[in-house]
## 1
Amino acid sequence: MARTLNTTPRRITATLVYKYLQVAGHALVRQYGRQFLKMLLLLKTHTLPAMASSARAHTPSVTRLQLFIQEAETTNMRNLTTPEGRNY
């Protein structure tokens, strides 16, 4: 995740980050708590503007990622549920 966020955003970056958070977000919240929230804040303040500034990269996936982060912040990350197929 850190490697992806530290590189120059490409067209697929928003999709990769969104899917990663959708699948592993619940485990990251459970394991890292507030540190994970700080990472989302960093993603929101630094990476998303870089994605949005690129005309090529401004796709629906950038908007989806923005909405996902906003919802996670407003619900205090309670929307990060266990993905389908996980039993723990």
## 2
Amino acid sequence: MRRLFQKGQPRPAKAGRRVGTPNKSTQEVGQFCREVLETPEFRQKWREYFTKTPLHRMEPKLLALTFAYAYGKPCERVELTGAESGPPEPQVIFYIPSKERHANLP
């Protein structure tokens, strides 16, 4: 088998799959999940499940995972604001363990 580059040497530029490109199995799983989620039978069964099943018995993680495979995870964004909607004030808190503190623990 002929190698395109020597072992131990850096790979040539632009060798391999591009960053962010999903592999074939990931694409196939996503396509399968989209096909299942978009069928009228599946939608009807989940509609019945959510309307008839008590909340403590539901397994919404399975549905959320299926949607994540089919359409991707939703974007999560965290915004921090300080007092009166201003910028947050940085705080640095140091904790120095004390032997006296730990001596009183059971």
## 3
Amino acid sequence: MTDEANRHALCGSWALVSFELRMPNGDLAYPFGREATGYLFYNEQGFMSAAFMGSERVAPQSADLADTAKNVNYDQFNAYCGRFDVHGDRIVHHVEVASLPQWCGLDQERIFKIDGDRLILETPPLASSAKAPPGYLVWGGVG
């Protein structure tokens, strides 16, 4: 498919089915738990937005935002948005807004494959360590 056809195929709403890290020894790890949830959106104007969280996120005991801010589960939530480009089997997210401040202004490249109503994104290793595993996010089409 052409880049334009791939871009068009990506556009829409996607719900997170699974997020796993594949270790070199074949083991799987689930950084947001086995029941992670989230959404990914791409539109025809070239914008994307992703947000996902772990199922074991701890709910704050208070509705007061000042109390909640002290107990945020940063390691159980990730969100970012910005423009995107497609180049062959790769998609580049140009991050403009992110829950991880260090991602703002960076590009996040993913290898993607669309298989029926599933979108599979493969991330590069999520840490600078040579032993860091790639991430695999499977998304299902919504609507």
## 4
Amino acid sequence: MLQWASDEQLHEKIREYASNGLKDSQIAHCLEVTANAFRVAKKNHPVVAEMVDQGRSQGINRVANALFEDAIAGKTQAQIFFLKTVAGWSEQAQQATTSSSADDAFALVEEEQNALRKWKAEHEEMAKRSSAAAQESLSMVTTKSKAIN
């Protein structure tokens, strides 16, 4: 029978297991007790629950420090993960912004294409009129030239 309240070696094992990310049922398995027995021990012996909490905090701290060091060292995945979880960045927000920017750019390109089509149509019409006027002038010059000769 385990001495939940007074066995400091047991407390240290519980803290170590929890710091390594084990769930309560896995800690119970390592201690060779049932998950229910471990649940009861946590409920009846605050020191057991405290060891689990301390261990989990220590494990999270180790991982957070390693992640932070990787992010600072320039590891892109660590930087992205850190910014998403700590700074609240979101790919959906980025996609919405990108999508909105793309929509705006597409609309601008479409406006420019329409303006170019209009300009081309106007200038083609002017070119036709100018060409017709030039033909008429040439015809008149030719006619006068023949009359003079």
